[in-house]
Amino acid sequence: MTVTLGKITTVNVRTIWKHEAQDFTPWLYNHIQELSDALGIDLEVEDIEVPVGPYYADILAKDTGTGKYVVIENQLEKTDHDHLGQCLTYASVLDASTVIWIASNFTDEHKKALDWLNDHTSDELAFYGIKLELLKINESLPAANFNIISQPNDVVKQVTKRKDNSELSETRMTQLKFWEAFKQSLQKTGKITKLQTPRPQYWFDISLGKSGIHLSNTFNTNENVIGLRIYIGSKEVPKWLPYFEQHKTEIEKELGECLEWSPNSNAKDKVITLTKSFDLTDETKWQEPIQWLTDNTICFHKVFGKLVRNGRLHL
Fold it and tell me: Which of 235, 232, 311 is nearest to 271 (CA)?
């Protein structure tokens, strides 16, 4: 049996983008979803060429899963010390939690610098080094490839976190264990790929692709209740709460559940919730609540994620 395959070749990025600010940054702005998919982070662009003193940050975005800022610095040449310094300066001034440095070639010392930052900073901060490549097969059009050469080391972060958590209260440790088990359960399904690192807190947020709106899972050991809530920040409430309410019948039909709409009417932020009681005091009985939360998280993510995508186009 003869198999004919194409040959992959690389194309100089300068043949497509002559100028970083005028050509590549606008292109990346319009193709931010491709970078999001490569990193496993839902990115939403806030602005481009953001002034920072006498300089300009190429792209300021938000991680819609956490609501925290992300600085993206582009370089169509080999990495240099100036751009490394700019990444750190922009991140500090703009209060960003994630730095994404894109370049056509990374030197060993700059890759090591990012690795060192990832290994020696808290899990609140993340540094990504992305090698920008243009690839083509035979005579095809070139396609952009975001090759991740440096990223947070989850193993190192987990060890550090365990040390930091050694003096946590019993409640906090229980929360952390539950979310770690829940994340593993979700990952096994393969339905939601962009998941945050579990933390010792009562909530576990999942992005819906829009900053100010997200899916938040809750774990209340005091009342033995777990739940899901669609969180709508105060700035988004005037547009998005009525939009969701217009689709209430459709939402509840698809979920097969009756939801609680805006239970705390006096709060500026609004939530749409579903809760259920379980015995959470015994870890050996967690399988059932974790499975319930996993199944409903997938349904919520599908139903509300679709509505958010449609709403962004029409609202």
Answer: 232
What is the spatial distance between Cα 266 and Cα 123, in angstroms, rounded to a whole number? 34
Write the pLDDT tens digit of every residue in 151-189.
Answer: 987 644 554 555 555 556 888 889 989 999 999 999 999
Domain 167-314 has CATH 3.30.1460: yes
CA distance 306 to 315: 14
Domains of the chain, residue spans: 8-156, 167-314
Burial bucket for residue 157 (CB in 10 Å: 0-12, 13-18, 19+) = middle
Regarding pTM above 0.85, the answer is no
8-156 is classed in which CATH architecture? Answer: 3-Layer(aba) Sandwich (3.40)
pLDDT band at 266 (very low <50, low <70, confident <90, very high): confident
8-156 and 167-314, same CATH topology: no
CA–CA gap between residue 130 and residue 39 (Å, rounded) = 9
Q: Phi first, then psi: give them for residue 153, nearest 5 degrees.
A: -90, 105
